[in-house]
Write a structure and sequence with these properties.
Blueprint lengths: L4 H16 L8 H8 L3 H14 L2 E4 L5 E4 L8 H8 L24 H18 L3 H4 L3 H12 L1
Antiparallel strand pairs: 1-2
Length: 149
C-alpha cells in the first residue's frame, strides 16, 4: 500500500503537535512547515481536515495557532490513516464504481492475499496511538529545534 503525501503530512503534523503539547503554547503552520521543510499550503488543508475530524483545535487571530484536541493516547493511527486516505484500493479489483478490466477477477487468488495483507496493515496501525510515535519526545523536540536554525 502506498500512502499519499496527504497522509504522510497528516501524521507529521500530529507528531509535531504531540511533541510540543506540554510546552503550553500554540503551534503555527509556519512552525511545522519549517520543522519539516514542507510547503505551508499543503499543511493548511491538512490542519483543516484534522480539525474537522476532531484531532486538532485551531484558534484564529493574533497569537493564534493550533494544538491537539485529544491526548496522544486517544489518537489511533489506524483511524487517522483510514480518514486521510481517499482510495484504499490496492489494485483495480478493489476499486468501487469503476469498470474492472482484469479478466480473472472472479477466480483470482491474489485478491484474497492482498485483502488480508491490507487488513494486517490496518490491524497493526490500530494497535498504536500517537503516543507511540512521541518516544523519545526530547529527541523529537531537539530535531525540530535544529530544523529551525
Amino acid at each position: 500500500m502506498h500512502l499519499t503525501i496527504f497522509t504522510d503530512y497528516t501524521l507529521r503534523v500530529l507528531i509535531h503537535l504531540g511533541a510540543h503539547q506540554h510546552e503550553g503554547r500554540l503551534t503555527t503552520i509556519s512552525d511545522i512547515a519549517t520543522a519539516y521543510g514542507i510547503p505551508g499550503d499543503h499543511l493548511r488543508k491538512i490542519v483543516h481536515h484534522l480539525a474537522k475530524k476532531g484531532y486538532v483545535e485551531t484558534l484564529r487571530g493574533k497569537g493564534g495557532g493550533m494544538r491537539l484536541a485529544r491526548a496522544p493516547e486517544q489518537i489511533n493511527l489506524g483511524e487517522v490513516v483510514r480518514g486521510s486516505e481517499r482510495d484504499q484500493a490496492l489494485v483495480e479489483c478493489f476499486q468501487r464504481n469503476r469498470k474492472k478490466t482484469c479478466s480473472i477477477v472472479s477466480v483470482c487468488a491474489l485478491r484474497g492475499i492482498l485483502e488480508r495483507t491490507m487488513h494486517a496493515f490496518f490491524d497493526e496501525l490500530d494497535r498504536h496511538t500517537l503516543a507511540n510515535l512521541l518516544k523519545p519526545r526530547s529527541d523529537l523536540i531537539r530535531m525540530f529545534r535544529d530544523a529551525r536554525t
